[in-house]
Amino acid sequence: MNNCSVNIGYLINEPYMHAVKKNNSFEYNGVDLAILQVIANHLNFTINLSEMEGSKNVMKTQKIANSLHSNRSYDLIIGGMVWQPKDDIDYTIAYEVVQIVWLVPVQPEVTSFMALISPLEMTVWFAIIVVFLFAIIIRFTLFYKISFLEIFAIIIGVAWNRQPMGYYYRTMFISWIIFGFILTQFYLASLPGRLLEDPEEEIDTINDLLDSGIPLGGSKLAKLFFVGNRTINSSSTSSGLIDKIFKKFIVFERIDYEKKVQDLISGK
C-alpha cells in the first residue's frame, strides 16, 4: 500500500481496545490493535488512530454510522464490536467465539388428581363412559329388578347376597366381572410406567430445546447473535436452527432480564 496512512477510529472497549496512561502520555493496547498492527506490517501502511466522537448515550452501532457519515472519514473502526446487521456498516470476519449458555428451568413436581387418570388416554376413558351409559340403558330395559348398589357392588368386587338365577342376570353378572377385571388390570399395568418414568425431559441439544416448547428469551444484544449470515451456508442445518431461535427469541429490558436470570438461578 506504499506506506499510505489509514484512518482508524476506535471505541474504548477493553480488552479489544483501550489506552493506558504512561509518563503523561497514552499508550494504546488491545487485541484489535495488535491484529491491525500485524496487518499493517504485512501490507505496508501506517495507522492513524483517533477516538470516535459521540455521546455516551448513543448505541455503538449508531455511533459508528454517525462517524462514517460525518465529515471526518474513517477507513476502519475497531473496538470489539458485536455484529449488528446494518445497511451502511460492513463487518470483517469475526475472530472470536462467544459462548452462549441457556438457563433451562426445572419443572417442579406437582401432585394433582390428574395423576389418577394419566395412565389411561382420553379415548380409553371415553370408551369406559360409553360402556357405563350402555349398561345404564340395559339396566332400565332388561335388568330393572337389580339396583344400582348391587351393580356397583359387582364392579368393586364386594360380596353380593343375591345369586343371579336367570340367564340374563347371570350374563349381566359375568359381563360386569370380566369388564371390571380387564379395566383394573389395564389400569394397574399402565400405572407403574407413569410412576417410574423420568418426569424431567432431557434437553441435550438445541433441537431438543426448540422442541420442548420452552420460551426462549434474553437481552436485545443476545438476540443479535442469532441473526446469522444468510449469504454463507444459508441452506445448512445450523443456519436453520439460528433462524428458528431468532424468530422465537423474546427480548427483555435490562431490568426484567436480570430479574428473570436471578429467578432462574434461585429456582423460582
From TrEMBL:
Subcellular location field: Cell membrane
Matches recorded under InterPro entries: Insect_Ionotropic_Sensory_Rcpt (IPR052192)
Record membrane topology: Multi-pass membrane protein
Organism the protein comes from: Aphidius gifuensis
PANTHER family referenced in this protein's UniProt entry, alphabetically: IONOTROPIC RECEPTOR 20A-RELATED, IONOTROPIC RECEPTOR 60A
UniProt keyword annotations, A-Z: Cell membrane, Glycoprotein, Membrane, Receptor, Transmembrane, Transmembrane helix
GO annotation, cellular component aspect: plasma membrane
Name listed for the protein in its UniProt record: Ionotropic receptor
Residues annotated as transmembrane: 113-135, 142-161, 167-188
